[in-house]
């Protein structure tokens, strides 16, 4: 049970929304534009979770840790954003339990924030088109702070915008970066096991609790 929680901060991709189908479309359009082989959804699913910069680099090199040519990266960045903006919510879906969770927390008057490494210009239309933007008092995108999760910057900014103490914010995510950001910010953290964590069991990162569905979360907040 979580006590003394004044706000809840949610990661987006892999926590609230399965966005990989649309991300994969954008990646393969990028590959086609650069005369490179299509990568496919299965590979893209293993690459997401660390922001678009890492995703693009992995797509260009067809590997998790490859180093892409700087000039090619410079060409790829605006193309990827354009392609993804065109299909940001075509096949993306809410995970089971998300709508019930957000409705229950909103009914209790808890302010909610979406904290994501995805650029806000792409996250905002995704939240709108998938129908959950009304639940969030603020959106902190990847360009809003100098450092991405697992740095605490985005969580601290979200807490500041909501007017609450970071240690009284509950972070909810799907990856070791979410858990690391919460620990670095001094926040308690809940995790879901179904998201984008590069094939690793999220329990290895020692969140305070793992919930199979976000529908279970409101009952854990005192």
Automatic annotation (TrEMBL):
Pathway field of the UniProt record reads: Organic acid metabolism; glycolate biosynthesis; glycolate from 2-phosphoglycolate: step 1/1
Its GO biological process annotations read:
carbohydrate metabolic process; DNA repair; glycolate biosynthetic process
Name the coiled-coil region(s): none
Q: Which residues bind Mg(2+)?
A: 11, 13, 174
The alphabetized UniProt keywords are:
Carbohydrate metabolism, Hydrolase, Magnesium, Metal-binding
Under which main EC class is this enzyme filed?
Answer: hydrolase
What's this protein's function? Answer: Specifically catalyzes the dephosphorylation of 2-phosphoglycolate. Is involved in the dissimilation of the intracellular 2-phosphoglycolate formed during the DNA repair of 3'-phosphoglycolate ends, a major class of DNA lesions induced by oxidative stress.
- Name the chain's protein: Phosphoglycolate phosphatase
- Organism equals Plasticicumulans acidivorans
Classification lineage: Bacteria, Pseudomonadati, Pseudomonadota, Gammaproteobacteria, Candidatus Competibacteraceae
